[in-house]
Specification:
With 128 residues, the protein is an alpha+beta fold. 29% of the residues lie in helices and 38% in strands. It is built from three helices and four strands; from the N terminus they run H-H-H-E-E-E-E. The protein has a four-stranded antiparallel sheet, covered by helices on one side. The radius of gyration is 16 Å and the shape is globular. The termini are far apart.
């Protein structure tokens, strides 16, 4: 019956939602660190806001080049907070420490993630 319909919409940041978000960001970071471009790209929504005026295809090609260039990559993520933006949309704030054989930096980032049929996907990525 309709009155027993269960909605899996996210309208609150519960511990289980945080766990799902952390797992998603960990997969994204692992794809990057392991230089596994298909795994890395798979974390982005089809609706991802591609930076600048580039196409999704040119953005993907550029990311592949940048991910594959170093001989090794290490990413450390330190979570700061989670903010519900809308139903099924959450901003994840964290500090990202990036280290490769030829470059290192530490930046504050936010990933806007949306719960989709296939799991949480990145809609927006920005440094702050």
């Amino acid at each position: 019956p309709e009155e027993y319909y269960y909605s899996s919409d996210v309208t609150d940041i519960t511990d289980s939602v945080k766990d799902e978000l952390i797992e998603t960001v960990a997969l994204w970071a692992a794809g990057w660190s392991d230089q596994n471009v298909p795994q890395y790209i798979a974390n982005y929504s089809e609706d991802f806001a591609v930076p600048g005026r580039q196409s999704r295809q040119s953005w993907s090609a550029l990311r592949k080049t940048r991910i594959m260039r170093p001989s090794e990559i290490n990413l450390q993520i330190t979570y700061q907070r989670f903010e519900l933006v809308d139903t099924n949309v959450v901003d994840v704030f964290f500090q990202q420490a990036y280290r490769s054989n030829d470059y290192r930096d530490r930046v504050d980032k936010v990933l806007r993630l949306r719960k989709e049929d296939t799991g949480w996907k990145i809609l927006i990525e920005r440094s702050r």
